[in-house]
Amino acid sequence: MKQPWIHNAKTDWWFILSPPFLILLVIFLFQKQIQGLENNYSFYTWLFLIVFIDVAHVYSTLFKTYFVKGEVQKRKLLYWGIPALSWILGIALFQFGSLVFWSALALAAVFHFIRQQYGFMRIYARFEPNNWNKKIDEIAVYSATVYPMLYWFKTPRAFTWFVENEFDWLKNLPDYTRLITVIYAVILTVWILKTVFEVFKTGKFNIPKTALIAGTYLSWYFGIVYFNNDLVFTFLNVISHGIPYIALVYIREIRQKEKHQLERLSVFKSVLGIFLFIGVILGFAFFEEVLWEVLVWNEHFSLDFHISENVLQFLVPMLVVPQLSHYLLDGFIWKKPKKVS
């Protein structure tokens, strides 16, 4: 069968499909060294993983939205309304306390991460009919991502999504871990059997879709359930999410478009343009994190600014606008326009 690559086998493998497999291999081979990294080089791991991948992937969205000539004009309400809504919503949540604010943002982030895996699965299954095979794939993606999060809610973890105790309010729920573990195992088994049966029956094997689902199972299970380590979680969570997203944006919005379609963005289409593209998103990411560090966190560096609580209730939601806008916009910008019959 013709494989449904987004760009080609080589690009898809290295930048979209391989991250969870490669990172997991590194983790198993160098567990002691990773612990040393966490203890002795926390600034550099933060800079590389959080700033240059996690935050940077948020700004790669600009190349599909605000940087595209005519895009904002076509959907003004969406592109101006979402940031405004994000700030207003953030301010409203902050009135209930910073923990409520960060808990809500963490849940939004989790939903965004889950939906990205589902979205990639749909891309790689785009040539397949809407039958029970695809339904099982969809259920598998959700089980691969939802189960580890439900497990996290009920089990003490040595890491956070944003802040300490962000999911503590969910610990009051009845203990469901045994039940969901059984359901998870059943769904995984059914998906494996379905995949094997499909290969023997049809002789067709969708390589990228299968790798995507398998990688999702591995990265979420080992990152959240199997290991209980902050850096391991960050490695698997951030790299497996951020790198594929950045790659998808570049492939779809720059690489696969003609120069006349790109207009001023055509400068990013060359080999040098790839580095320029990376430089732009890293620049935005670093600038945002400098603001966070100086004005709010004061963890990695500080200028000894003192911000009052009255100001923070407006400032923190404002700093979150790019991130929350990214989560919300993603629900719109990747949808295919409906065909007019």
Automatic annotation (TrEMBL):
<protein>
    <submittedName>
        <fullName>Uncharacterized protein</fullName>
    </submittedName>
</protein>
<feature type="transmembrane region" description="Helical">
    <location>
        <begin position="12"/>
        <end position="31"/>
    </location>
</feature>
<feature type="transmembrane region" description="Helical">
    <location>
        <begin position="43"/>
        <end position="65"/>
    </location>
</feature>
<keyword id="KW-0472">Membrane</keyword>
<feature type="transmembrane region" description="Helical">
    <location>
        <begin position="139"/>
        <end position="156"/>
    </location>
</feature>
<feature type="transmembrane region" description="Helical">
    <location>
        <begin position="233"/>
        <end position="251"/>
    </location>
</feature>
<feature type="transmembrane region" description="Helical">
    <location>
        <begin position="311"/>
        <end position="329"/>
    </location>
</feature>
<feature type="transmembrane region" description="Helical">
    <location>
        <begin position="176"/>
        <end position="197"/>
    </location>
</feature>
<feature type="transmembrane region" description="Helical">
    <location>
        <begin position="100"/>
        <end position="118"/>
    </location>
</feature>
<feature type="transmembrane region" description="Helical">
    <location>
        <begin position="77"/>
        <end position="94"/>
    </location>
</feature>
<feature type="transmembrane region" description="Helical">
    <location>
        <begin position="271"/>
        <end position="291"/>
    </location>
</feature>
<keyword id="KW-0812">Transmembrane</keyword>
<feature type="transmembrane region" description="Helical">
    <location>
        <begin position="209"/>
        <end position="227"/>
    </location>
</feature>
<keyword id="KW-1133">Transmembrane helix</keyword>
